Amino acid sequence: MSALNHESLVGLNFKVLSIQRTEAGLWWNFKNVISPFSRLWLVLGGRAVVSHHGRKFVLEPGCLHLLPPFTAHDCSCSRKLDHYHLHFVSRLPTGVDLFSLLDCEFQLCPPAETQNYFHRLEVLHPNQKLPCYDPAQEAYRSFPVVAEQGSHNLSVSDWFETNGLLSLILAQFLRTAQLHEGIHARVTRQFLKVQEFIHGHIREPVLLGDLARAANLHPTYFSDRFQKLVGLRPLEYLMRYRLERAQFLLLTSRAPIKQVAYEVGIADPAYFTRVFTRFWRVSPTQYRADHSG
Asked: Is residue 41 within a helix (H) or strand (E), and if so which, with residue range?
């Protein structure tokens, strides 16, 4: 994973949103689910199927499966599935999730001690349980925000242990991971300070000159260089960042479209709806409806 350097990983923030052992049944059958967090399934018994990235994966005893954030997937269980499920975020200081930047194996056979790591995480986070299992339910949709707020209550020792356990689990995927050639990865690699500035000022009006100052470059030179290295003009990337944040808010809240637009720094709700629809090929209202379960 040589394309990610140590500087870009400083401040990587892990948060456990939910961790528990569950036996799923025929009810574990959901289509076109998208969530703003990563999932890990450690299978202890039974069998199920999950489909994403154009592939079908069989979840069987002994496998560990990773589902990155904002990954549309279908899942089904024909009889039962005894498994640990871990929902987490792994955000960089830029606000981008680490697993949104990487190409890695989605399923592997972990060492035997991995089950102990999951058990210990469950002990450390006894109250981090899913409120329900149906992604269409309001309690499920809002739980990531509530869970992130609750994660601040960890003691220093529990916080360190949580980070260590998650690091041990995720290192198994990172050993062969590569920084993919997506837009965010190119910006992380070439214009990290610009990405950090956008993350910190997403609710505010931002001009080209603001981004150029963050990069410590003249605006014209900065714009040309950004487009050459990233493939978008800086303000186009800024809008993409705003619209991806809007996705998160649409998936995790019932906030009115006007409020979502305000939260991502777009003052005119009608304009927000137009650019969101043009970019994602679906309106904000329909996007929320399509991915509610």
From this structure: strand 38-52
* 208 closest CA partner among 184, 231, 225: 225
Q: Is 92 helix (H, G, I), strand (E, B) or coil?
A: coil
The pTM is what? 0.79
Mean pLDDT (whole number) for 102-121:
94
Task: Tell me the C-alpha distance between 272 and 246, whole Å.
Answer: 10
Segment 58-90, tens digit of pLDDT: 999 999 999 998 888 999 998 899 999 999 999
The CATH number covering residue 149 comes to 2.60.120.280
CA 3, CA 189: separation in Å to the nearest integer? 7
Rounded-to-integer distance, Cα 214 and Cα 100, Å? 23
β-strand 30-33 against 55-59: which pairing, if any?
Answer: unpaired
Angle at 85 between CA 81 and CA 88, to 5 degrees: 160
Helix (H, G, I), strand (E, B) or coil at 178: strand
pLDDT tens by residue, 248-261: 899 888 889 999 99
Provide the domain limits for residue 70: 6-179
Q: CA nearest 174: which of 117, 105, 120, 86? A: 105
Angle at 142 between CA 105 and CA 241, to 5 degrees: 60
Number of domains in the chain: 2
